[in-house]
Every structure is written in C-alpha cells, then in structure tokens.
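Researcher: Good morning. I'm working through a list of sequences from a screen, and I'd like to move beyond sequence-only analysis. For each chain I'm collecting a predicted structure so we can compare shapes side by side. This is the next one on the list. No need for commentary yet; just the structure.
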Amino acid sequence: NAKGRKEATLPLALQSAAVGGTKTRVRGTCDLALFPLTPNEFLVAGDQGTVCRGTRFGVTPVPRSYALTDPNLGQRFGVSRFVAQCVSVAFSPFFGTFFVAAYTPATLALFNTDQGLALQIWKDFTIEHL
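Model: Good morning. Structure tokens for this chain:
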C-alpha cells in the first residue's frame, strides 16, 4: 500500500428480485462499469455468472442483479443457467440504459438497466461475427 493511499472494499451481497429473491454473493470481480447517466451507480461482473448493481451512496435500485435466465423458469434462449463467469460489462455509448455483458464460454447478452433478465443472448459468439 503506497503512503497516503486509501483503499476501500465493498462487500457485494445483494438481494435480487431478478434472481428469484435469493441472496447473490459475488466472490470474484472481473469487471466494473459506472452508469453513464448516474455515476453514483455501478455494475460489477462476477465470476458466478451474475452482474450485480450497486451504489456508492443510498439504496441500490431494483433490479439489483442481472442474469441470463430466471432460475424459477429454467432455460431462456437455450442457454444453460450455469454459466462459468461474466468477464466484462460495457454500456452503450448511444443509449445509457443498455449494456452488454460478455460471458464464458463465448456468450454475449444485451440488458436494459430496468430489467433483470437479458433482452437478447448470442451464444457461440466469436470475433468473426463482427
């Protein structure tokens, strides 16, 4: 730790309506993205396949996490609910309420910040698709 430098940690155990009301704990963090429209809010890509939403100050708005599938309904878009990890999140530069999450293996998902489940999922996505 450098002299005069302060470090902070944020325990991410969030109650999630999007994931069946269960408590979701992020063990490892793969990426962090600030909301472009409200910098007080952020997204954390976790190694458990969930994207968690948090705030620096105040109460975190609903939904508090984002998932590819609803565990109460089973599969959606033919994607297994057990995805290895979410490795990256990025907001749209044109529409600040939309973001893309990249999962292993080779899966992309489009989300809206107001909905806890993916709007669209692309399986087996590779660089050749660009």
